[in-house]
Amino acid sequence: MSSSLSPSASAAALRDGVVPPAADPAESPLTWFARRRGKDGRPLIAPHQLLAGERLRADFTRAQMMPRVTADWNASGVRGSRVPGALDPSETVLAAKQRVRNALGAVGPEFAGVLMDVCCFLKGLEQVEQEHGWPARAGKVVLTLALDRLARHYGYDARAVGRSNGRISTWIAPAGNAAE
After folding, report:
1. Would you put residue 146 in left (φ > 0), alpha (ψ -120 to 50) or beta?
2. Three-state DSSP class for 37?
3. How far is 27 from 139, CA to CA, in rounded Å?
4. What residue stretches are annotated with the DUF6456 domain (predicted)?
5. Where are the domains of the chain?
6. How many CB atoms lie within 10 A of CB 149?
7. Is this prediction's pTM over 0.85?
8. pLDDT confidence of residue 158
């Protein structure tokens, strides 16, 4: 996990299964944006945006959607022992593909391309701007909007908000355990 995340954000990332298998956080353009500060001193992308982008990347990795450049030498016909209740590897791949499809559908076609390019294919923003014919630094704005929409799909918010008036039903200790 990236050292740019706070401990609570790191715990949330691990809980949500954000870290892709055998992933190097330094290779992600999103971690670069999370480490850099704007003129106002804030990170270029917020922690909830980073988590959303890395969660999409994790699902993309698990879905094995990256184009292959060589032959697949994995033993596809070999079955090992399975943990009871665990998904079959092919079911895991299908579930991850469905999560990617749902996430990209939620952000819409306007933002799906930039998210795929930056989060999944790990392209730099300058390259994405050139490929889409955008003016310089327009990609940062589009990426920020896309990550906001993705974070909303995943239920992440810039700040944690709980109930404003939590009710305590009782503080009564069982008989014999009361403090004197």
Report:
1. alpha
2. strand
3. 19
4. 25-155
5. 7-67+87-154
6. 18
7. no
8. 83
